[in-house]
């Protein structure tokens, strides 16, 4: 990634979050997203911040990591668009 976050990056992270919410017995973290998508940590961090700023997810900081507590309806609809 060249520093720019694309719509496809946002969708990939949202889809990964949806899968992680189903599989984990806890809220997914930025580390979980990195493992699922293979994206670099910094890119995942920027993408999560962008998603939060656009009200597609809610997140919080916990132990030095971003913890995603919810994918909003807006985020779910955006992720499902082709």
Report what the structure shows.
The protein is of the alpha+beta class. It contains four helices and two strands; from the N terminus they run αααββα. The chain has a two-stranded antiparallel sheet. Helix 1 (7-23) packs across helix 4 and helix 2 packs across helix 3. The radius of gyration is 11 Å and the shape is globular.
Question: Would you spell out the secondary-structure blueprint of this structure?
Answer:
Blueprint: H1 7-23, H2 30-37, H3 41-53, E1 57-62, E2 65-71, H4 73-80
Antiparallel strand pairs: 1-2
Proportion of beta-strand residues: 15-25%
Element string (H = helix, E = strand): HHHEEH
Number of helices: 4
Instruction: Give a quick account of the main beta sheet: strands, pairing sense, barrel closure.
Output: 2 strands, antiparallel
Give the terminus-to-terminus CA distance.
Answer: 21 Å
Q: What fraction, in percent, of the residue positions are helical?
A: 55-70%
Shape: globular
Question: Assembly state here?
Answer: single chain
How big is the Rg?
11 Å
Query: What is the count of β-strands?
Result: 2
The overall pLDDT, averaged over residues, is: 93
What structural class should be given to the helix and strand makeup?
Answer: alpha+beta
Sequence stretches where pLDDT stays below 50 over 5 or more residues: none
Strand order of the largest sheet: 1-2
